[in-house]
Amino acid sequence: MTIYYFEKIKKRITELEWLIERERIDTEYDEDADISKIGGNIVFMDGSVLHFKEIFIGQKMHYRFHYMDEKNNLITRWDNAPHHKELSTFPHHVHLPDGVKENKSVKLIDVLDKIENIVIENLG
After folding, report:
1. CA-CA distance, 119 to 46, in Å (whole number)?
2. Cβ-contact 85, 102 below 8 angstroms
3. What phi, psi does 49 have (nearest 5°)?
4. How many other CB atoms are found less than 10 A from the CB of residue 1?
5. Does the global pTM surpass 0.85?
6. Which of 46, 50, 84, 99 is the most buried (most CB within 10 A)?
7. Nearest to 122 by CA among 48, 42, 62
8. 45 - beta bridge partners?
9. pLDDT tens track for 85-109
10. In b/e form, how buried is each residue of 32-53, taking b as 16+ CB within 10 angstroms?
11. Per-domain boundaries in the chain
């Protein structure tokens, strides 16, 4: 299943090539341990950068998507690290320049869709 999912991600990134300056994507599969990983970074034409990692251990997903502007200032970071227990969406949350907020679980494709709109607006 994760191989198919990773292929969907790569296809989505290919669809965004007109907005991408450069990219690096690494995948790793360990079927015996039931662990799969995808990670890397994407530099967009507006200078913004996405660092991403999704790790699947069995059916459980751990993720971190860190999106910064061209000066390395945080725009948004989505993750499910097990802190911020005070949030109703624990462990899912989002870091914004003004603090940490509740957020539902997201996948890399969701994040790419959001970033696509931001980059198009910045370039417009």
Report:
1. 6
2. no
3. -135, 135
4. 8
5. yes
6. 50
7. 48
8. none
9. 999 999 999 999 999 999 999 999 9
10. eeeebbbbeebebebebbbebb
11. 2-110
pLDDT one-digit tens code per residue, 22-61: 999 999 998 888 999 999 999 999 999 999 999 999 989 9
Q: Dihedral, CA atoms, 91, 94, 99, 101, nearest 10 degrees?
A: -60
Q: Write down the residue that tokens 């607006």 correspond to.
A: 121
C-alpha–C-alpha distance, residues 88 and 109, integer Å: 24
Alpha-carbon distance of 25 to 52, in angstroms, equals 9
What is the Cα–Cα distance from 114 to 124, expressed in whole angstroms?
16
Specify the 3-state DSSP secondary structure of 84: coil
Q: By the 8 A CB rule, do 100 and 90 touch?
A: no
Q: What is the distance between the alpha carbons of residues 78 and 28, in angstroms, rounded to a whole number?
A: 22
Please name every residue paired with 63 in a beta bridge, in sequence order, or none if there are none.
Answer: 54
- With beta carbons less than 8 A apart as the criterion, state whether 98 and 111 touch: no
